[in-house]
Amino acid sequence: MKYAYGLTGTLLAGGAALSLATGFPAGAQVAQNDDSTMARVVPRAGAPESFADLTEQLQPAVVNISTRQRVEVSNNPFAGTPLADLFGRRGGGQPQQPTTREAQSLGSGFIISADGFVVTNNHVVSPTGRGTVEEITVTMPDGKEYEAELVGNDAASDLAVLKVQRSEPFPFVRFGDSEQARTGDWVIAIGNPFGLGGTVTSGIVSSVLRNTGQGGAYDRYIQTDASINRGNSGGPLFDMQGNVIGINNAIFSPSGGSVGIGFAIPAEIAAPIVRTLMQGEEIQRGYLGVRIEPVTGDLADSLGLPRNRGEFVQSVEEGAPADEAGIQAGDVVTRVNGQEVTPDQTLSYIVANIAPGTSIPVELLRNGDRRRVTLTVGRRPSDDQLRQNQMFEGDDEGADPDVQSSDIILERLGLQVVELSPQINSQLGISDDTTGVAVVSVDPNSDAARKGLQRRDVILQVNYRNLQGVEGLEAAIAEADQENREAVLLRVQRRGIPPRSLAVRLR
């Protein structure tokens, strides 16, 4: 199953795995070049004798991107093992505090204006783990380096815009119309695979609007067999007219290297987002508030419906636009705002590209009956809000790496917790006025685990005081340290069971 308007993917940065109008004229260009120069370097249709002239024209605008980061690392050599508590303390006392180290990442990008705007993938310029990016450097093909400013980034589409400065104009390229790309068209990719510098590969468009099954609004890619590897992330995929029709983003590879299946974000998706980021504006996307599943396989057979048509509603968020319009769990959404819902044009994609506040018709099937409702599209919440809304929907007992939890509580109690909110309270089946924190995960090697704490438990009090949030639990730990107490008393509520008190040892 998937949630509408999320995003997952396999990434290509070195060391790692929307309205539809493009708004950019087609054609590759170097600042101050004229159209006659451009015409001479465009190969004839069909298989070109060589890509050399086209490459010579385009390569000056393709850059290498590197970051310098400060990453937090643990000093405990037994971290993540059952021996972490036994040997991970300094002199048998307090836990060893983490330190930081310097790290780097490598990727690709391309200049889209003479004044130095650069497009790349968001994950190329984002911090690794618990790190912060201290510097972004853009290196030109001639080896000149420029410090870059992050103008804007968008995690949902995995796009980012940088700005570099110099007195003379930069060579640049332009977005083309990826909607005109056809399976079998020639393409070339230019980028920085494995940190090797400007590298050119050629191939064809293997598929258009490829859905990888990862889910989310932007699971739509141009697939190509042009060799794409780690470090190609953020680099351009060009058509034979020198237009950027895709931004290289992901690969399918059992080995980690190119096996001829690469994916690029289509220009029809990227260009309007890039334009918005260049203007310093926030990306706003439509939102319905439904949890959905494709109508395939047994689900289609059980409903007696054609496969790959429409999407099945698993649940509806209370108070969300879909709920207010009367959409229910079990409905099959078949058409939104006049557009048919298919694997190539998912519900998530259609709604994400509708401006919040727009009133749209939605056609659906309920118990075999066709219905039509009208709703007002909401604004997609932030990723943090979405994570909270969906925090306890599943039964996953493992730690959630996306939860912004307290390092102190995780280190001292072995608990990953999140503050209560109306959305989380609803998921846990507790009253709206309940205060405290909810347990997201429990370290199996902690005393909390030995005392029976579990995911979905709610900590109501600590040392007989009502708990207002994460800061209150941190303060109680600090107070216990000051008074040389080795445990805290937690009042814990579990659904269907009266609250109980547990004395949990600090680590």
Automatic annotation (TrEMBL):
<protein>
    <recommendedName>
        <fullName>Probable periplasmic serine endoprotease DegP-like</fullName>
        <ecNumber>3.4.21.107</ecNumber>
    </recommendedName>
</protein>
<feature type="binding site">
    <location>
        <position position="123"/>
    </location>
    <ligand>
        <name>substrate</name>
    </ligand>
</feature>
<dbReference type="GO" id="GO:0042597">
    <property type="term" value="C:periplasmic space"/>
</dbReference>
<dbReference type="InterPro" id="IPR001940">
    <property type="entry name" value="Peptidase_S1C"/>
</dbReference>
<keyword id="KW-0677">Repeat</keyword>
<feature type="active site" description="Charge relay system">
    <location>
        <position position="233"/>
    </location>
</feature>
<dbReference type="InterPro" id="IPR036034">
    <property type="entry name" value="PDZ_sf"/>
</dbReference>
<feature type="binding site">
    <location>
        <begin position="231"/>
        <end position="233"/>
    </location>
    <ligand>
        <name>substrate</name>
    </ligand>
</feature>
<feature type="active site" description="Charge relay system">
    <location>
        <position position="158"/>
    </location>
</feature>
<dbReference type="InterPro" id="IPR041489">
    <property type="entry name" value="PDZ_6"/>
</dbReference>
<comment type="similarity">
    <text>Belongs to the peptidase S1C family.</text>
</comment>
<keyword id="KW-0574">Periplasm</keyword>
<keyword id="KW-0346">Stress response</keyword>
<keyword id="KW-0732">Signal</keyword>
<feature type="active site" description="Charge relay system">
    <location>
        <position position="123"/>
    </location>
</feature>
<keyword id="KW-0378">Hydrolase</keyword>
<dbReference type="Pfam" id="PF13365">
    <property type="entry name" value="Trypsin_2"/>
</dbReference>
<feature type="region of interest" description="Disordered">
    <location>
        <begin position="82"/>
        <end position="103"/>
    </location>
</feature>
<dbReference type="InterPro" id="IPR001478">
    <property type="entry name" value="PDZ"/>
</dbReference>
<feature type="domain" description="PDZ">
    <location>
        <begin position="277"/>
        <end position="350"/>
    </location>
</feature>
<keyword id="KW-0720">Serine protease</keyword>
<dbReference type="InterPro" id="IPR009003">
    <property type="entry name" value="Peptidase_S1_PA"/>
</dbReference>
<dbReference type="InterPro" id="IPR011782">
    <property type="entry name" value="Pept_S1C_Do"/>
</dbReference>
<dbReference type="GO" id="GO:0006508">
    <property type="term" value="P:proteolysis"/>
</dbReference>
<dbReference type="Pfam" id="PF17820">
    <property type="entry name" value="PDZ_6"/>
</dbReference>
<feature type="binding site">
    <location>
        <position position="158"/>
    </location>
    <ligand>
        <name>substrate</name>
    </ligand>
</feature>
<feature type="region of interest" description="Disordered">
    <location>
        <begin position="381"/>
        <end position="402"/>
    </location>
</feature>
<dbReference type="GO" id="GO:0004252">
    <property type="term" value="F:serine-type endopeptidase activity"/>
</dbReference>
<dbReference type="Pfam" id="PF13180">
    <property type="entry name" value="PDZ_2"/>
</dbReference>
<keyword id="KW-0645">Protease</keyword>
<feature type="domain" description="PDZ">
    <location>
        <begin position="417"/>
        <end position="475"/>
    </location>
</feature>
<feature type="signal peptide">
    <location>
        <begin position="1"/>
        <end position="28"/>
    </location>
</feature>
